[in-house]
Amino acid sequence: MDRIVFLGPPGSGKGTQAELLCKRENFIHLSTGDLLRGEIAGKTEFGRMAKDYIDNGLLVPDEKITDYVLNHIEINDLYKKKVIFDGFPRRVFQADSLINAMKGKNSSIDCAVLVYLDDSIVIERLSNRLVCSRCKKIYPGTYEEDTCCECNQKLVKRTDDNADVIKKRLDVYKAETEELIGYFDKKSMLIKIDGRGTAEEVFEKIKKVLNENV
Ligand code: AMP
Asked: Is the residue at 76 inside a domain?
């Protein structure tokens, strides 16, 4: 299981789990949300285009984000590496494009891990969480410091982590990503993980199923 798509509502903890798999199992974390926030911070043309969608809780159009990600894979030579796809693909068009691009390079997407969680828990987690302004590490609302434990930079709230935008993101997730869940299920690529519990508990569940499905 070398190239894994991570699925789940915003706030399900999939970003944290991806980070743990990178640190402990040598995966590369490809997070489109982080890449787009980097483009915005760098004031690139692509970043300016993406910002309008992100700030309104909408998805960046399929063709634009797909070209961007496939280009990122090519430039960084990620076809044969161990990669966690976090936040991409989000729709069937994106998934088809990614799977076909992989096939074209004699590679593959090996499974899709769905971390699932109730809406009420998602809203509570997202309304309270903070992220490091530099390394993007995520901290739950219960974290007591105001700087990152790894790079000592200030913790900030993401501009799209407010109640209105969160509800919109959940609606967008349901309307559009659930089709993707069915898509991976039909291809027998879907692995479902209950996202309740601590990050360590969820990580153990993921590791167990990945080892069972080598
Ligand atoms: P995330 O950090 O994954 O929640 O992404 C933050 C925002 O970036 C999303 O709400 C979208 O506006 C945009 N975005 C990230 N990945 C994608 C994608 N695969 N397709 C379209 N928009 C995306």
From this structure: yes
How confident is the prediction along the chain (214 residues), in pLDDT tens digits per residue?
Answer: 899 999 988 888 888 899 899 999 999 999 999 999 999 999 999 999 999 999 987 889 999 999 999 999 999 999 999 999 998 999 999 999 999 999 999 999 999 999 999 988 888 888 999 999 999 888 888 889 999 999 999 999 988 888 888 888 888 888 878 899 999 999 999 999 999 988 899 999 999 998 887 6
CA of 203 to the centre of ligand 1 (A): 23
Q: In the chain, how many domains are there? A: 1
Residue nearest to atom 2 of ligand 1 (CA): 33
Q: What is residue 11's DSSP assignment?
A: T
Find the angle CA(125)-CA(29)-CA(31) to the nearest 5 degrees.
60
- Ligand 1 centroid to residue 36 C-alpha, Å: 8
Does residue 159 lie in a domain region?
no
Q: Alpha-carbon distance 122 to 118, whole Å?
A: 6
What CATH number is associated with residue 22? 3.40.50.300
φ and ψ of 83, to 5 deg: -130, 135
Q: Which residues line ligand 1 (CB under 6 A)?
A: 10, 32-33, 36, 53-54, 58-60, 65, 87-88, 90, 94, 169
User: CB of 139 within 8 A of CB of 126?
Assistant: no
